[in-house]
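Replying to the earlier thread about multi-chain prediction with a worked example.

Input:
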Amino acid sequence: MDNLAALLDGFATVAQPQYLLYALFGVFVGTAVGVLPGIGPAMTIALLLPLTYSLDATAAIIVFAGIYYGGMYGGSTTSILLNTPGESASIVTALEGHKMARLGRGAAALATAAIGSFVAGTIATVALTFVAPVVARWAVQLGEPDYFALMVVAFVTVGALLGSSVSRGLAALALGLFLGLVGTDTLTGQQRFTFGVPSFADGVDVVVVAVGLFAVGEALHVGSRLRHGPVHLVPVERGWRSWMRREDWRRSWKPWLRGTAIGFPVGTIPAGGADVATFLSYATEKKLAGPHRAEFGKGAIEGVAGPESANNAAASGVLVPLLTLGLPTTATAAIIIVAFQSYGIQPGPLLFESQSSLVWALVASLYVGNLMLVVLNLPLVGMWVKVLQIPRHYLYAGILLFGALGSFALNFAPVDVLVLLGVGLLGFVMRRYGYPVAPLVVGMILGPMAEDRLRRSLAISQGDLTTLVASPFAATAYGVMALLLVAGLWLKRRERAAGAVTSGHSSDDTSGHSSDDASGHASDDVSGPASGSEQDAGHDPGSGTRPSHAATSEETNR
Amino acid sequence: MTTPTSVATSPDDGRTALAALRRRPGELVAALGVLALGIFVLVDTRTIVVPGSANTLGPRAFPYLVGALLVGAGITLLVGLARGRHGEEEGGEDVDASVPTDWRTVALLVAVFLAHVLTITTIGWPLAATLLFGGSAIVLGARPWWRALALGLVLAVTVQVVFGGLLGLSLPPGPLFESVAVFRG
Amino acid sequence: MTGPRRTIVLAFVPSALGREAARVARDQAALTGARVVVVNTTRADRLVDLRWADEQQVAEVVALLRRGGVAHEVRHAADDRLAAEVVLDVAAEVGAALIVIGVRRRSPVGKLVLGSTAQRILLDARCPVLAVPATPPDDALPR
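Result:
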């Protein structure tokens, strides 16, 4: 029951006007970037890390939680209206949601996504409220070898599963571990890999690495292959405000609950994040659709309701290992850890005791943010469409500007901005050649901790390596890791198969499976000359041949 | 660029893989880079001083592990490349996988960024940021050029006022704005 | 009919204002027996460009002109040049006697970010320009 009391305290904190405003700011920015394809929550939080230099910890964490949640909502909006998922976790939503929009049912699709997200987000936050303290209490009893085991599990699963190729994921992980090594060894005070550069003695700043990889690297990558294809048009119907029908409610509520039940557990384990949950939910709904099964692929509302709920429930699930064990299982979670660290707070089992009020304010802000999102999301669709009209050159120039600002503001030293550029180039090369960037960040954050745990374990056991697998927990963890690997790789393969069938999308920062659906979609939607005789003459302005319809109408004109 | 002759393991499928690699030598360079970094880590770890009173696991052990992981990943990558397994380029809505890589744009963006780094302290943050925003927008296709710069100036001054003036980050205003009170925290 | 025909260039945007401009262009063309060249373009530099017409919107303009018995031609393609440049270049190429555009009030910020196509056409055109004012409210969103 103390949990409920603590949660109420959290609500009391969040209910203060300035924190409500921070929450509103967070969900607003989060939805905007969720709407914008190419800019994910990981990049946004990385870009906004400078806020931590001047805001208090509670305010910053509330903003970041809002961005994290808002991004999940925003992704569904673009999926449905434009068939361009803003997030990898929204790929499935595009399958059925965009079809629904084309049938003039866009409003219902948006509504079931938003309400489903709200229902799932709320239930999953309740689950988080009760599960997290239990996990934390249990985790306090874990020994050093157990922690080392947990980190190895995180390394291997994130490295192997967050990306298209296992060897590239592991290479990225090793790069991150190396970057984590740079600096002064905490136990012996020896400098390692500092290359004699004084500013490396404190290590490479993880903020610079995060911003460099997610913002500068992405901007350079986009610059290298700027899309110049025909633009998408928004099929927003005038009547988008129309509500869900009774039939839609009847068909939606079960997928909402099932999506939640699938999403939350999948989110808590390091198995590839929210997109895996959405694919699982989609497959489940398809199987259980019964008489509506034929509608799948043509705009089945269950195919929007389920995956969108799973997506948001998974987002809450990810917070369980993050807050209780300090284990990030997605790129965004890794950046949130960076935010905690910049306040000198280490997420882990002690967090619920040492930073109780902060944690419960965070949980309370999730409830509040969810409510804000469902209220904001539907009426503001027109505004999100405006966001999509920002020209790419200004968008990416702005990303570079704010990235440079964040790195410079660390120490007010231009050399940090130079390091940022270096990391950005690394991020560009990694994107260019299919290396996932998320394992690098995870490796860099967890690497030093893992080394610490390993050395302490072996110091206690006086060098006996069997101590690492001696405890039942550690042994189980390694066993579960093997299972997760097999299951995760199998899921990835299924997901890719599904993606290939439906010409899946790629997306923000975690997954590398890419395809070029956008231009294909655009060409059947808007581009190309108007049909038949309305052929435009714009392509050969100098030629004497006049389009046929012009000639015919000239006759009628006579 | 490095010639990919050293990777061929089996001559049969090695040939097509080599041809593919010649078209995308960067991928080979990236894999070789991972391997080279791993070797460097293994070698450089030997220079880390181990204090006499070190407990069982000193400051060298973990670096050796990381170096070994890098070397292992590098070799696996090279073997994969020789077998024709290529990386899937990271996708994205603003990324057009069908056009060739525009190295010129990347180089220009890097140049603009370098110019920003070099000018922060001399002309102040607002003007250096204007240069960064305007320059990269123009490189990415903004037209007309003066509008990109004007927009950059508005944005930079706003950031300077909000972050430098209100939130108290000590961004250098530079000689031009030195005397303006709202630009300083 | 022999001899060079008068040509009117219509800078078309899919909005109520754009459709109003199209009606004005049609009436002008019907009066003088001119033909209308409909121009609609995009730089394709953003995900959504509300000033880029889709096939159906182009078809509607064509139908409007056809109902008025006006000869017409459509220039509907993505172009790296600014919209104003495309319109002016088409006008020069076809030797336009008149350019018809829709104009509406713009905020200074909007002008800075997006620029004003209408202003550029008004200032740089080598032929008369007919500016059609917005009858409020001008819906920015396509139907």
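The CA atoms of residues 271 and 484 of chain A lie 6 Å apart.

Feel free to reuse this layout for your own posts.
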